Amino acid sequence: MIDKIEVTIDVIVHATEDISKIFQAFELLNLKKEDFTIHETTGYFENPITMLNAKIVKKEAENFMKKLLGLLSQQQINELIEEIEERTVDSRFHMRLDKQELIKGNVVIREKDTIKIKIHTPIYNKKETVKTFTEIFQIAT
Known about the structure:
6-stranded antiparallel sheet, 141 residues
C-alpha cells in the first residue's frame, strides 16, 4: 500500500490524430474520457492541437499504477527501477509511453510521440527516492 500517490498524465493530440482512439486506448489503463480535462490550443504552425490532462489520486492512482505495471514487461519495470535517480525531480518520477503503441493496445516506454506520466509521492529525504519508487514499481509483482 502506498501512502500518498498522485499520477499526472499529459497527452498532445495533433489534428491528424483521432482523439476517440486515444480515449479508447486509455480504457486499457482503466481511464475514461471523463478523467481528462481537454484544452484546445494552436501549435507553432497555427495547427490545432488538443491537450489532454488527467490527475488521479489516492486509490485510483494506486489502481492505475497496478494496471500500468501489470502491462509492462518485467524488463521494462527493471529499467525504470534502474533509472529512478535520473527520472526523478522533486519527488516526481517521469516516464513516457508510446502513444501509437498504446492505441494498438501495447504499453511501451518510449521517448518519442509520447504520453507523459508523472508519478508523485512525497519524499522528504532525497536518499529515500530510490527505495520509495522501487517499492511503488513492485506493487504489481
